[in-house]
Predict the 3D structure of the following.
Amino acid sequence: MPLKAYDLTGRTAFVTGAAGGIGRASAVLLAEAGATVHCADRDAEGLHETATLIKDHGGTARTHPLDVTDRAQLAQAVRSCERLDVMAAIAGIMHRSTVLETRDEDLDRVLDVNFKGVLHACQEAAWLMLARRSGGSIVTMASGAIDTGGPGLLCYGAAKAAVVQLTKTLANEVGKHGIRVNAVAPGWTRTPMTDRHDSEEQRQTETWMARMSPLGRVGEAEDVAHAVLYLASDASSFTTGQILRPNGGVAMPW
Ligand SMILES: NC(=O)c1ccc[n+]([C@@H]2O[C@H](COP(=O)([O-])OP(=O)(O)OC[C@H]3O[C@@H](n4cnc5c(N)ncnc54)[C@H](O)[C@@H]3O)[C@@H](O)[C@H]2O)c1
């Protein structure tokens, strides 16, 4: 029996990016806390694996194979939920290029997925929560890139900074309706996203990140999922418009 404030029994969550990494870990944990979880991702096979994991642990999952840049598909999937208590907008892509080498099409692609994909998920969720007068919690996925301005992270960091602005603005606009909106800004986390860029430079960055952390390690997807669960649940009922940083202490902004 989970602590009551973390108990999501009877609630419904929608998770984008649920086919792998942080999205999968979050979907599984939200289900473990008792929520019915709607899992969305463009990777249908990965989605099926996530749903199987949830069901094998006695949870309830629905799958929505979709691309978050397809607004109509996303709207249809969110509106298919009978009720919606939690939106976790986690789907995202990595892109690295120096400022001087960045092409407009790189920026457009990253903004489409990492910002507009999150914006549209937030809009759909908030509309549904407002229409049903149910309140709810919206969790967005930013990144430690908002604190560092790391080399090569212009497109990625700009999109994540926009997600933070969206989070704060929406929190101000819908708070009076009992809807909370918060962002998670993880540090380096071991997921398919960080493995996919497996190169000597990538390995060196991971080692450096672990050394930079007072805890001496990089993150695991489950570390971030626990932050998502906290913000999704009543445990954070007086928290809105905030950025939670599961980053091992690599950055400690005020
Ligand atoms: N891993 C890290 O170090 C780290 C750090 C900070 C923030 N983040 C953020 O966390 C989120 C999850 O990242 P992750 O590390 O788990 O990456 P990941 O690549 O393991 O997972 C991302 C998921 O998003 C899905 N996705 C990507 N584009 C999509 C689209 N257009 N439509 C639908 N689904 C799409 C992918 O299929 C994948 O399942 C991202 O927003 C990422 O920017 C990750």
